[in-house]
Amino acid sequence: MSDFNVCHQEAMYDEDMPAVFQYFTKEALCEEETGGALDPKDPNRPRFTLQELRDVLHERNELKAKVFLLQEELAYYKRY
Description:
Blueprint (H helix, E strand, L loop, with lengths): L2 H8 L8 H16 L15 H30 L1
């Protein structure tokens, strides 16, 4: 089995995240494991580093929390 396939089977990611993030997270993990030995001409290579994906997901989670709080506040004011 190639290193590429092993990476994809062992890659850990948040199953709640959108599919595009799952794909690029797997690719970024594989790149870290292989030392960045991916073909730069491969059209399916990762476009973001693992840290960039983590930052985006962290920001997404913060924004989701803010939306939840604002929805609760809006519901409170709608009652009165």
